[in-house]
Amino acid sequence: MLGCAADCNPTVAPAPTVAVLPPTAASATNLPTPTLSQENVPSTSVSLSTSTPSPIPVINPDSTAPTSLNGDGQAAFRYLTELSTDFAPRSSGTEEELAAAEYLASKFEEFGYETSLQEFTLERLSQELSGLTLDGPDSEDVDVIPLVRSATGTAAGILTSAGLAREGDIPPGGLDGKIALVERGLIRFSEKVERLADAGAVGAVIYNNVPGNFQGVLASGGSSIPAVAISRKEGERLLDLVGREEVQATVTVTIDSIPSQNVVAEKAGTGQGVVVLGAHYDTVPGVQGANDNGSGTAVILALAEEMASQEFPFTLRFMTFGSEELGLRGSAHYVDSLTDNQQQEIIAMLNFDALGSGESVEILGDRALIDRAADLAQRDGILVTRGRDQPASSSDHASFRRAGIPVLMFTAPDVSRIHSVDDSMENVNPGLLRDTVRLALSFLQLPNPFDQGL
Q1: Domain 23-38+125-255 indexed as CATH 3.50.30.30
Q2: Among 226, 170, 215, 235, residue whose Cα is nearest residue 196
């Protein structure tokens, strides 16, 4: 996703991946801004709004609102079931992601769209090549996930507990030359890692405060030392071990190159201009990703199926983006591949991400588009809230916004389970998928949806 927001601290919801050369030559990895994946300090639902939004009241819904939607949006939930059952996880840059892309391309072709795969290669912090090794006669490897924006390289030292990495948790003698073992929670990842580095640590190992591993995201400055995440079970085991004996450890964070792809499906309009409807289809490793972003991908398929037999005054370009969870890579590649004239042809971009959990549809983006969508929601009896982009958060609409293209994003207020094993079908609200399909279709069926205020 929207991975939640890049550097928060939830007690329940993990976040996305990324990589220090030896401490003498550590270098921050200059990677694109990753998706909203943060640690949220409270264990409550996280909204994209910077303040608590008020639902837009439903007043006298217009009985003439469009009712042509097949199955009232039930197709979206059917596609979500297929994605979550047959194509999950869909971790960025993997064979599973490719299989999902081929499935999506086949559906667009079935609907009658001109369809293609746009392939690209990217560098990422590698979970497979990174690691934590307990050195000694019986060397032991521990599974890790590098924190996004970690430095790359290898560091070795005595593994030392430092609590939650608060000021009072740092040992009196500091952490010079040591690998710090700390628990997730209470303060941001960036604050933890920076404090550990300032105390002399050459590496940071953060263990989860709930079952399973997680992907954490550091703030935009990255880190000066390698920082990795491990599961709570492994963390508690290592905590007990270092309490009984001296443990020498080595932390490695490494970059590799991987292939990924976007799916592009197009239907020519009767007039000028292009409207892009997009959603990322990849997930973070090891999760079903039903909300983030099976929900948005399923809505894209439902809209494409519904709109295939209709004519519009603009060209429809449906896109599902790969490797969003590694920093909006797919959408950034697509926008960068366009000429200035091709960018100027795009009237607007509608983004669908993590829209399946909560009580209302949330809309954010350009004010003129938000206002128009809110008016339609009121007319059609759809409960919506107005959201705001958070500075530390992002999704694929940001790649288009940077190019000066108007954007409208459809999401939902509750992202507390994204990037965790709890992001599963049973935690998706089918009504939100239905309402998002209804609202987006009503918006695009307006006689001139993009003619004012843009």
Answers
A1: yes
A2: 170
The per-residue pLDDT string of the chain (454 residues; one tens digit each, 9 = 90 and over) reads 744 434 544 433 333 222 223 333 333 333 333 333 344 433 332 233 333 333 433 333 333 334 444 545 689 999 999 999 999 999 999 999 999 999 999 999 999 999 999 999 998 899 999 999 999 888 999 999 999 899 999 999 999 999 999 999 999 999 999 999 999 999 999 999 999 999 999 999 999 999 989 888 898 788 999 999 999 999 999 999 999 999 999 999 999 999 999 999 999 999 999 999 999 999 988 899 999 999 999 999 999 999 999 999 999 999 999 999 988 999 999 999 999 999 999 999 999 999 999 999 999 999 999 999 999 999 999 999 998 876 556 899 999 999 999 999 999 999 999 988 999 999 999 999 999 999 999 999 999 899 855 5
Concatenating the DSSP letter of every residue in 339-386 gives -HHHHHHEEEEEEE-S-SSSSSEEEEE-HHHHHHHHHHHHHHT--EEE
CATH superfamily, with its number, for domain 70-123+258-444 = Zn peptidases (3.40.630.10)
Residues 6+ apart with CB under 8 A from 64: none
Number of H helices, E strands in the chain: 10, 15
The CB density around residue 426, as the number of other CB atoms within 10 Å, is: 7
Do the Cβ atoms of 195 and 206 come closer than 8 Å?
no
| Separation between Cα atoms, residue 196 and residue 150, nearest integer Å | 14
The structural domains of the chain, with segments of one domain joined by +, span: 23-38+125-255, 70-123+258-444
